[in-house]
Write a structure and sequence with these properties.
The structure is a homotrimer.
Chain A (H helix, E strand, L loop, with lengths): L8 E6 L6 H10 L3 E5 L7 H9 L3 H5 L2 E6 L3 H14 L8 E3 L4 H14 L13 E5 L4 H12 L3 E6 L2 H15 L3 E5 L3 H8 L4 E4 L10 H5 L5 E5 L16 E4 L6 E4 L5 H17 L5 E2 L1 H24 L1
Parallel strand pairs in A: 1-2, 1-3, 3-4, 4-12, 5-6, 5-8, 6-7, 8-9, 9-11
Antiparallel strand pairs in A: 10-11
Helix pairs in contact in A: 1-10, 2-4, 5-6, 5-10, 5-11, 10-11
């Protein structure tokens, strides 16, 4: 059997009960020949799975054997990643793709989309902007907070409880060397206080939970961007259309929003491009939201270039 | 990647612990590129699975993504179907194949086989015939009862307990608008009483349970058809050969029987043709026993035509 | 659909929670088109799985449908095998591959490797040799004990407890008609006593458990072969290199050892060749360690021939 014949095999290792059909579909569409899901994987059990996957196909086979880590608990996924990487034995290392319940690709795509439309409020980059992240302790919220901070924004990370906001901000500082300002949501007057100086407000909370009401929005100064990742009504931001992007809020002029579903096609594109790149990645390269943000930015840059060309023609 | 390259993916969503190798085999042989089994699916968890399968491949991908619903509890499968269909978002709808533990294909094939050999008792259709269905509350029994009633027969649905027969008959009336006569099995004299006017007696009970004894058979008038779906001894009907079809009962002349395994190859053909049709089906088309009965009838019609041609030649 | 198009499908039926990525990888690399893992299979549930796999593809399909039995409890796997074989219905029989947690291929490869280097102690075959097997009650230990005995050695099967050694020796006598001498490990002086006349000492214990200390080794007469299957430190034999084969012990001259990992590439080759053979095997042919030993011997014979040719050139 020559190298050309060996199949591309992806192991979907999920801390939750099930791997998702979403990721299975995208992996096959990206070009993998075989996708094998494992559910209820833990940081303890992942070691044997990785070793067994690594040592059974020779060197050329290891190069075509890949790992996708998933799970709704970010800390569990981080522990799985740590153990998986420690289990690798060079030169048999397997490349790894990390996208916990889609949060890394979704968060990256949303931040890139907001960046692509910053001109709406007269800005061109996150550098020096004030960003508020409701639901900042969840998977998407953490990604959004870290990416904005890494790109120069001052970020307030919000949670229902001050103590949880502080714990997560501490973890993210340790993991990604970013300084975030932890804060409790508080009541409407407190939310107005937190948001009034912000350039961008992200709502990354649980599905079906409203985080920013019309009452709050109406008390805010103009010229802000709002971005929601909750696609299940009631939405995270009151009064917006879940499918629209870069639209003025119908009841609060001067506030421009991005609905949760408006980022769906770019999220999908980012995941698919990432999995394609994973297929040919070398060594124990790990793909996470930093890579996904880079890809998402290129997608929006290409869109902008196309649009500009169209307008010229 | 152009459309021609996207794989045909089938999600086998099973309410029981495991998807069956039977369905996996048939799906691959029908032409699917990838078959992904999920066990222990519920009416609650199916929603996310369907949404994830639906929204992750674009429109051309959704067209090549299909659902197979399975499970030994018919009501659970019906609830799964209801939720799955409600979760669909046009134009991303996924087509669905329903065959709970093989009962829909098996029942359809058996009814079509009995119909194909009605000439044995001087009949050509179910119209106006009297049909008795032992084990009428099980998956196969329900399919047999509904199909016979839909095709004009007067159907007695039997169960060990009168109350269960009534409940199931009520459910089937609501679901399929058919009138069935619910009745308890009773003892041998009562079974004779129930069967004496019947043209056809189906036994669709649990594997290894005899439902019609020689004692009962010998007290029945001649010119009846018997059909059994229980392949595990003791069979549902005493004294028959599980592999034979359209044979006279060796100890009771004038009664003609169909053994459980005699329908196996047509059941398999019906499932395979159904899964082939599923591959290219459009929208949220749902394949169930009505489609399977139609296919099974065509299989028997073709057999008959072939035989006739052979006899002419 | 013609025969040439039907896919080669392998069902990995595992008594443990999970099928291993190791076996999945090797099966795909051997040429299977589809590998379907089932975990937590039992001797009770395997019957339906085998029947469903057997009867759903026609005769030509059954010929391309194969079973791989796995599990860490040898007796459970043996029961699964018995039930699986009993469930077969000729001519639909499915061929079976048995390799419980890799023990059959690993044990076979190690025995063949030791045999290939017997010249180190002036021998050419196991005939009449004295063999001691520490950890003889585990999966690899049982395979090693039986293979050595079948090839003419006098084998001492060791366990921590005398009673367990006796029970397993009894089971192996019944299953494979071999006479083994059961014995407890005992303390260091007793181990010296057991090993002093041995030509070969295998250590097949649990990962991370030392079975033969330097203290024991130093009290043994020269001219012996040591072979370890434990790759996790502390190794089964003190002071050896896990990657090396046929090396003199650095601290005890005259003792020649084989480290656990030195057999890895041949084990992999044996499993892959076995699975290739499984693809085209006929009837209910069962592949187990006797077949694997035969394959492993051929691998070493070929290596030797190549080396000889090289030296001539």
């Amino acid at each position: 059997m020559n190298m050309a014949e060996k199949k591309y095999i992806l192991y979907l290792l999920d801390a939750d009960k099930w791997a998702s059909p979403f990721d299975i579909n995208v992996a096959y569409d990206a070009g993998f020949d075989v996708v094998i899901p494992y559910g209820s994987v833990t940081a303890e059990t992942i070691r044997t799975l990785v070793e067994d996957a690594m040592f059974s196909r020779g060197l050329d086979g290891a190069q075509r054997t890949k790992i996708f880590l998933n799970g709704s608990d970010l800390n569990v996924v981080r522990d799985m990643l740590k153990t998986a990487r420690k289990s690798m034995v060079t030169p048999f290392d397997l490349s790894i793709f990390v996208d916990p319940r889609g949060g890394y690709t979704t968060g990256s795509a949303m931040v890139a989309q907001v960046e692509a439309y910053l001109n709406k409020i007269g800005k061109t980059s996150f550098e020096g902007l004030k960003v508020v992240v409701f639901g900042g302790t969840g998977p998407v919220g953490q990604v959004v907070s870290v990416l904005c901070a890494q790109n120069g924004a001052e970020v307030v990370l919000l949670s229902r409880r001050q103590e949880k906001a502080e714990r997560i901000a501490g973890e993210l500082k340790e993991l990604y060397k970013v300084d975030l300002i932890p804060k409790a949501n508080g009541d409407d007057p407190q939310r107005v206080e937190t948001c009034k100086d912000a350039d961008i407000i992200f709502t990354c909370g649980t599905a079906g939970i409203q985080l920013v009401s019309l009452n709050v929005l109406k008390q805010l100064p103009k010229n802000k961007i709002l971005a929601d990742v909750n696609a299940v009504p009631p939405l995270g931001i009151e009064g917006i259309n879940v499918n629209k992007k870069n639209k003025e809020h119908p009841e609060v002029p001067g506030l421009y929003y991005h609905g949760a579903l408006s980022v769906g096609s770019v999220k999908l594109k980012v995941e698919k491009k990432g999995l394609k790149a994973l297929m040919t990645a070398e060594g124990k390269k790990t793909f996470d939201f930093v890579d996904f943000f880079d890809t998402a930015r290129k997608v929006y840059a290409k869109k902008k270039a196309k649009k500009a060309e169209k307008q010229k023609a």
